[in-house]
Design goal:
259 residues
Length: 259
């Protein structure tokens, strides 16, 4: 059974992932509260996608526990998947369906009421300015990402997990996606996303986690991370990131408060 704390959306306790002799993630501890816009950043190969894939049940932890909305992903995978919306970095869609047909299919997979599915499709098509005439196989990358985001949001999940949602898209598409996610957070949904676009992470995140070599180096608000890293008050996320990741500190970590 889940041990529910309604204020906590994501709880990661000593999460580790090993691939043979490679330790991809080395004991991450992280709590993300309801209504948080959480940006997760790190260099290539730092462990971002590994952590996200474990959060959504695509891979199993080698050790530790991951809970989403109070449910352990290893023990209660169905309950977790009912409560998350997930958009992977590499979007794969049914190319011979329109966006509306695809969203109807996804809604049916979640067992949603047909009338509610139609209402959500109409809302999401308008909200994301999605083409509902052409087949998705003809879509640009930006349009494909918007379709994948709509599928992740169709069932109004309390937790939304996105791997590199802003990668490879134009400014207008990025702006539209940010606006939609901000609206979800304002409605007390939790958004957890990874990104290489540090400017975007700094602008929209209420809390930020920095990972490197499988270790969580820092977590908190930008100001908390700035102060803990001993950085000047005018430093932005990029400067803080470069200092923390570039420092040869022997793997020391810091975690800000979770309040």
């Amino acid at each position: 059974m889940a041990q529910n704390n309604s204020s906590i959306s994501i709880e990661i306790l000593d999460f580790q992932k090993r691939y043979g002799d490679l330790m991809a993630v080395r004991g991450i501890n992280l709590t993300v509260r309801k209504g948080t816009f959480f940006g997760f950043v790190g260099p290539n190969g730092a462990g971002k996608s590994t952590t996200i894939n474990a959060m959504v049940g695509l891979i199993r932890p080698s050790a530790g526990t991951i809970k989403i909305a109070g449910f352990d992903i290893s023990k209660n995978p169905i309950e977790v998947k009912e409560r998350i919306g997930f958009m992977p970095e590499e979007v794969t869609l049914y190319e011979r369906l329109t966006a509306g047909e695809y969203l109807e299919f996804v809604g049916q997979m979640y067992g949603m009421n047909p009338k509610f599915i139609r209402e959500r499709i109409k809302y999401l098509l308008e909200l994301l300015d999605l083409d509902n005439i052409k087949y998705m196989g003809t879509f640009s990358l930006g349009m494909k990402k918007k379709a994948a985001l709509a599928a992740a949001l169709i069932h109004l999940p309390p937790v939304i997990i996105l791997d590199e949602p802003f990668s490879g898209i134009d400014a207008m598409t990025g702006s539209r996606i940010r606006a939609v996610l901000n609206e979800m957070v304002a409605d007390s949904h939790t958004v957890f996303f990874s990104s290489h676009v540090l400017e975007t992470v700094e602008r929209i995140s209420t809390r930020i986690g920095i990972i490197n070599k499988g270790r969580l180096l820092a977590e908190g608000t930008l100001q908390e991370i700035r102060q803990a890293a001993g950085c000047p008050d005018d430093w932005g996320l990029e400067e803080i990131f470069l200092k923390l990741v570039g420092a040869e500190s022997g793997g020391s970590t810091w975690t800000g408060s979770s309040t």
